[in-house]
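In response to reviewer comment 3 from the previous cycle, which asked for concrete evidence that the modeling workflow produces usable outputs, we include below a single protein chain processed end to end. The sequence was submitted unchanged, and the resulting structure tokens are shown without manual editing.
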Amino acid sequence: MGQRVWRRLPFLVPLLWLVVLALPGPTAAAPLSTGLDFPLTRGWFFGQTGGTPDGRAGFSLTDADNIPFWTTFQALGGVRTLGYPVSRRFVWDGFVTQVLQKAVFQWRPEVGQVYFLNTFDDLSRHGFDDWLYVYRSTPRPLPPDFDAGLSWAEIVQKRLALLNARPAIRARYFAVPDPLRLYGLPTSPVEDMGNHYAIRLQRAVIQEWKVDVPWARRGETTVANGGDLAKEAGLFPTAALQPELSPRAPAATARVTANLAEVRTAPDEDAPLLARLLRNLPVRVTGERQVGAARWLEIDLWNALRGWVLASQVDFSPYPAVSPPASRNIGSWPPPAPRQPAPRSLNAPARVVTAASLHATPAGPVVGQVPADQTGTVSEWTARDDQGWYYLTADDQRGWVRAEAVVLIEEDPLTRWVGGRPIQAPIAGKGLWVKYDTLQRTTPQVLVQAARANGLRHLYFQVARSPQGFYGAEGLNALLPVAHQAGLAVIAWVYPYLHDLALDLDLAYMVATYRTPGGEMVDGLAADIEQNMAPAAVRAYGQILRALLGPDRLLVAVTYPPESYHGQRYPWTEVARSWNAIAPMDYYRRPGQRYSEADAYQYVARSLALIRQRTGRPDHPIAVIGPAYDPAYGNNVGPNNPTAAEIRGVLRAARDHGALGASFFEWSRLTPEEWQALGAFSW
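The workflow returned the following structure tokens.
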């Protein structure tokens, strides 16, 4: 509708609601309980719209996080007025939103009020007018200049007058106590749609039937639910529309015994494949169905989706003491892209930190000496095995000098801002590490849908390793467009051994500058530096990579935890020179031991403190990596995976002690209870 109404109407609605919310308690409508719904803490669970006849799945409507969706729902008449919830909470246009059958709630924190979303205006804004007209007999909206030059009172009067064309439609509109609040203003004239007349409103469509139909007799009027129509049209994110498992639903845990268990969208071997699950992975079974000779089990996939697996592929017995074999043929690295040398030229200011010889060629004849604290410019680099070399010009001297004797003078990588936010923003909040072969067992669409449903904000995706090269281009081509469209950052994960410095720099540069056919790039580069930790090699790798990529590319150094044997000997100050963030692998678990939430919390808290101490930077950005695997069992998943309490401990410690975020290794090995703990944690 016209921009004037779009801007002004939302400010009217909360004022009307204030009156409703101030009414005495008895006027609030209780839910229409049918046995499928029940109370929650500060809310209610509704199983009526979960797609399961026994209420095993549905949607909760609560006042969680001090967003009063449940209180507002009751005050406005509950199910009779608004219908049942048909979505989870999600973020829409920057605001927390939840879809009901007859309306869409949106929390506006700037005024502390719940608004109705103008659903049909949003459908129009996203290009659904033709779909609504053809498939749901909904009139197209009025032209934008319909309200030109009118005051607000004149706009309301002119639009309400459109109802006069059909007295029955007008009567239906005014039959509710406050039609402006519930329906909004008309946004079309009454139109003859063939077997009925219809008028489009901001949040609903009123229909008057010219013939008998199964749901109405001739002359009767009905109201098409705006929330249901928007859901059917595909306006809202798919993940938000996935039902939640009922807190009261009986569930059993089974373990995958097949080489790869195939999870499908329906109990049918021809149904689309959601994922292939590794042997030994536990799954939460929520239902079953017999289809011919086959018994299918309904499972909760990644705390986000419902899928179906053949009962023959899982077992309900406990884990055996000796691990079954790992899965075979679970995926492979594709052929690497041809090696492309990174530029060897630089233009970097430098300072000599220890007196050193200048050479005519790398490791060649000595042609001069440079003292400590001499400054100059590095114009070229090269490497011999794990030794870096710089071509240095200092005053009237020039020649090749070992990289270990020189530091490149850089901007502070910790305080850099890019695009109006800290450079580390893509790795804030919750994330997961994803091995490359995961995309050979599921699709980017399913992966991203599950990630967003669990509140993840970033993924670390494995794409390159020193011996194998850059093998992840095809995976990035598939994942990046889907992830970015969903607002999910993707950090490329590389594993440089640093035994061949030139090769590893070429590899990192290829990955960091790679563009998909559609022009997408990764949101950062994470290098797992755990093979060669010689300070000279670590310094040269970080400093040359930073000089090649510039100050605006996010670089994350993946390190040992500081309490470990290698962590106590790690070159922390060298990492702090060039990398924007440190991601310690805080894998505190040892085989045969049990751990509590407090154990996990305390380990991560100590890790954060030690890294800041050893880098000499109390402000050093850190993104914790927690364990979510069983190192002693086949496929690294089994009875000794961390518990849900441990997942919470890692997350709480990271948040409480100022980490950027926390991620877990690794996607395919998380158990259902780990997924639930990760998804439930607010960050």
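DSSP finds 17 helices and 37 strands in the chain. We consider this sufficient to address the reviewer's concern, and the full set will be provided in the supplementary archive.
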